[in-house]
Amino acid sequence: MTPSSPLSQAVQAAKPREPKCNTRAVVVTIVSLLFLIWALSEAFAAAPWRASVAVSRWQPHRNKTQQATISSVQIKKSQQQHVQQQQRLQELKQQHEQHLQVLQHLQQQQEQIKNGVQKLRDLEHQLQQQQHLEQRVQDLKQQHEQHLQVLQQLQQQQEQVHDGVQRLADTGQHMPQAQQAMAATNPAAGTRAVLPTQSVFPVACTSLEMSKRSCVFQDVCLQSAADKKGLSAVLHGRVQPAHADMLKQHLVKIFEGIVNAANITVSIAPAGSSSVPASALQPPTIIWRPAGANQYSFGHALINEAFSAFLVLQNHYQQIPENLQLLAVGGWHPVLRNVLAGTITGHAAEFDAAVAASPAATCFSQLLVGDGGYIAASRGSLAGTGTSFGREPSFFSSANWRKFRQHALQMHGIQQEQPPKPLIVLNDKRFGAINQTDRRMLLDIEPLVSNLIALYPQAEVRAVRFRDLNMTEQIHQVAHANVFITTQGSSSFLLVFLPEGATCVYVGSPRSADATKWVPFYELDRWFPLTYVQFQRYEVALSSTAEYDANPMPGHWAPGDPAEAREWWLYNAHVRLQLDRLKVILDPALQVLSASMDALDGSVASRQQRSVPAPWHIHHVFNGTREGRQLDDCPSEWPAELQLWDPSKSWSVNTSSLGPATGATGDKGSAGLMAGSTINTNNTGVAAGRSVILHGNKNAPQKGRHGKTLPLTLEALQYLWKHQHPANCSNQKFVVYAAVLSGIGSVLHVLSTALRAGLDSGRVMVESPGHFLASTSYCKGNTTLGGCYFMPLTNCTLSAQELAGAPLLGQEQYHRLLARDPKLPRIVRIDGRAPWLLTGEPLAFASQLSTTSIPPAPSYHNYYEGASYSLQRFWWWRAIASAYIVRPNERTYAELATRMRTKVVGGELKDGCIGLYVRHGDKHMENEVFSNEQYERAVEKLRSIDASLTRQLFLSTEDGATVAYYRNISRGWPTTYVDMPMKNDPNKPNIEYMAQHGYHEEMLNGLLNLQMILECSGFVGSIYSNWARLIEEMRSTVRCKADAVYVDVKFQEPVGFNYVFRRR
After folding, report:
1. Are residues 839 and 924 located together in one domain of the fold?
2. pTM over cut 0.85
3. 237-268, pLDDT tens digit by residue?
4. Which residues are in coiled coils (predicted)?
């Protein structure tokens, strides 16, 4: 490229030109710059606001940034708070829902509770209706059975009219041969006829809890086939086909597995046949089918066979015949034969020997067959654990065991006399010539006997090997023992034959901690609820290995399980008694025994004189004063028309309908009728005009007769009887009293106020029908006290229409009644307000009472009647009224006689005994109650007042703990009492117990207690109790013991007695 070219030229033009140095220009430029700097500095110095303005222009932007940052944080916080609030709200909602659910559940539960309460009420109502219906059905059944019995009796009587002559003639032909044959085979049997309790013959059936049905057939002949594979029976007399079918059913059951049912026939002898069996005079016979399991053990034989047979016989016979024959079907072991022949009858044979081996028929005058005869074979052992009885049946009762004992002793002629000194018997279980051993033995028995002889020289000590003795000898040994020491086991069951008041030291077995099946005292607790024996338990601790030996015994059964086997051998352990421990038990028993023997037998002379210091020999109604007429002499004879309580008739009643009584008889008591007098009864279920013969006996049970009554007793009773028995009832006015639900003592006392209303109003008092105590099947439609239990209170009767139309008087009308307002209707009614409105004695006796020492001064104000009365005179009137009301009728006498033989436990009451009535139960709900110790101190006080009184008690109570307290031998009170249902729950009303036990049972057991306690010379009770006051009222009137001492457990002196018991 050339310099001259255009391109070169352009490049050259583009190159920068180098400046030319111009000094002037540079100076000018520098000076300008300096001036500019100065000007600017001046300008800024003169205007500083401009800088702030510049800065302020940027500040809003900065604040906004900060505010935006802060808002962002706040928003985040708000969002977090919102989330938290949402969560909390959700939790509250959940809690609310839960609360709603709980509330709903509670409401449902509340509704369920309401429904449950209503259902319970409905069920209670249904149960009451069912009980009412069941009672009604039972009553109807009983009425039906009674009607059938009456109808059958009428039919038989009609039939006997037709064939009576022929039967007498035939009997006359056979009697000599029968008597001779019988005397030859059984001289002790005699010719005494023993009739069953039911007079329905030729067939009498009955039942009891342990068996469905058993029957007594009269004039029956049995004959076995030659090959023993068939059995035929013939019924004689005018029997029905149903009787033959009944006998066949029993025979089929008895011979089940032995004779084919098809080969058993029962026929009826041809009508008009003159061949009455010559066996008509043979002893009664029972055919029995023993169970194989009961053949080898005394205990099983006793409980399952002997006791069962006794109960069946007892259900048929008033008195079990001593000449009874017992025939066993299927054979038996000697153990069973020994027990049955030793307790039930002396005649025990196998059926084969009696019937099957005989080519001719064997006939029986009375043949008893039925469930009782084969219960053990068909239902299992009563004493076993695998039976149908989930609990022990009620026939294992003290009363039944006591009767069983009495029968066995009577049958073998064993007297129950007191030995000359206390007898201690030890049960030595060794037996045989080689001293064979058994389970549950007393170890080292010889040194033990020696130590006891040295310790108690005043007693006789025996170790008895019962298995080496026959049954009669065994019973004899135990029946005279005052102390019986035994381990558990079969032979210990002999304790049922111990005398009343004896002590049984029952030795238990060591118990392991896990024992469930075999426990100490198992047998005692299960089968022997005896109250006539004092049981002292000797316990053995498992850790005291020196006291027992629990090694297995070869040849004896034991469970396969090792744990159970250990329990079993502990249960069957041999025991080595410790003398120091045994002494603690025997000392009080022997001390009390010696004291009671001295008191009952060795102090007769000391009781001949009675020295009772003042003021106690003056009756408490006199308030300690001695002015005026005091006690009256007991009448030598009470007027027959009064028909007062005759104590001897409660011991022995002999009428054509009741049969011979078997208890002790008595002569006319202090309140009795003359022997041979006639009693006319009405509305009692007994025909009027029947003669009641009272048998005289020097041993009559009239203990401690004192011979004094309250003043005016005889006159007042005659006046009352005359008022209640007008010659003409058609022109009389009446006051009808309707009873209210209450205790028996209260019922009788309220009734006395109704009698007072009748006297003061001039009206005859009549009981309203439907009394709750008489509305039972026992009373048979006689629903008043005077119709069921007592003599009628009046000879006047009112129709149902008259009773229904009688108006009930209100409180404001009582003064009109007592004022004898003529405007009142002829018949009026009063109710349970009577005791509050009619307090005091009747006006008719006011003038006569003024001649006595009973204080007339007012001591109680009746606000209802607006008047004041003497409490002592009020009590006097109640005593008179009670003596009039409580007049047992003939049927009640018979019932008391029966119950006295079967329910009274303890020794016979002797002269000088003390009656003790203890009221516990629900009494605390209305008044003060007192402990057993307080009553005991009152008894001791009574004995300090009257030294002629003994330590023997008759205890009347419904508290089982009180019975146990006084029956405890360590307390030293030989005690007799009535074995009856107790009322042990103090919070359960007495009325509920009465309904539970049965009103007629309550009434009859109460009257039995009253009868027994009136026998005693002294009396202790609490006057707060209506029943205690009733006892003292009867003692002071018809029992002529107004001069006998009464000590109250509350009041220290007679002057303080509160006769109406209500607190003021």
Report:
1. no
2. no
3. 778 888 888 899 888 888 888 888 899 999 98
4. 75-161
